[in-house]
Amino acid sequence: MKYAAFRSIGxxxxxxxxxxxxxxxxxxxxxxxxxxRTGIKERRLxxxxxxxxxxxxxxxxxxxxxxxxxxxxxxxxxxxxxTPDYLCMPSTACLISSxxxxxxxxxxxxxxxxxxxVYILNIAKAFIESGLKKNILLVGAEKYxxxxxxxxxTTCFIFGDGAGAAIISATDDKNEAIIxxxxxxxxxxxxxxxxxxxxSKHPCSQxxxxxxxxxxxMKGNETFKLAVKTLTAxxxxxxxxxxxxxxxxxxxxxxxxNYRIIKAVGESLNLNEDQTVVTVDKYGxxxxxxxxxxxxxxxxxxKLKKGDxxxxxxxxxxxxxxxxxxxxxxxxx
Length: 333
What we know:
The protein has 10 helices and 13 strands. By secondary structure, it is α/β, with parallel strands linked by helices. The strands form 4 sheets. Strands 1-7-6-4-5 form a 5-stranded mixed beta sheet, with helices on both faces. A 4-stranded mixed beta sheet has the order 8-13-12-11, with helices on both faces. Strands 2-3 form a two-stranded antiparallel sheet. α4 links the parallel β4 and β5. The two termini are 25 Å apart.
């Protein structure tokens, strides 16, 4: 039987920084208020001429290089994003493939908001275990600055731009296998987080543009309560399913939405600060890119070792949520 192994991680962090002090100049807010509410101190912004595919391509090249494979060995490219280069087509995954020189390979996007990277990890696991693919490039890429209303003081300071990528490869070694990925959704909560304009329900029009309906809107308080409850329950279910305790987790890498959410979930699960990877203070919420960017941060800090047990946990618009449990399995150099 073939198993799916998590071989490498990479990211692209745009160099341009927007601090809380910068937001004080454009909206009625303060560094103290933003920090207390979210834990965010700064976030990264892509250049005006950069699109999500540009960010994703840079992260992808790093992940490929670290995996020790040639790009010609990749037989599937999946991109998780809610800020695609184009509204409908072509997919951002196709554009990333082209930009890094991958040809004649299946490529497609997945839209699951902040849970996107966990969703595509689940898909990659299934493709590899079925024997259909051998080396899959996963990319979470977001240019959230392109869908923000900078007059909306409830949301505009939360999000940032960036990309993360990983290589998932086939292995015969069960000890390297991704243990489990669990994903779910509930569309009854569609109004909590959404971009209402530009689709088939509210097609692009002057009215839609004037109302900034193509920008993200979010009901923060309701989302916070549901996120803590859902994320905690999802992790408990995953650990119980595999007879594991919180002490068995080397690195807990949650979606980087809000430090208060991360702290509340961590405390509910009795996970200590050394186990929990936090980057929301540096990058803000980068949606589908946040988990791979956070994992890459831990990797570059020298904290991520071969054989470490990693637990992903994410929650996003849809609503969607998911968790993943796996051993980090880089190839021996």
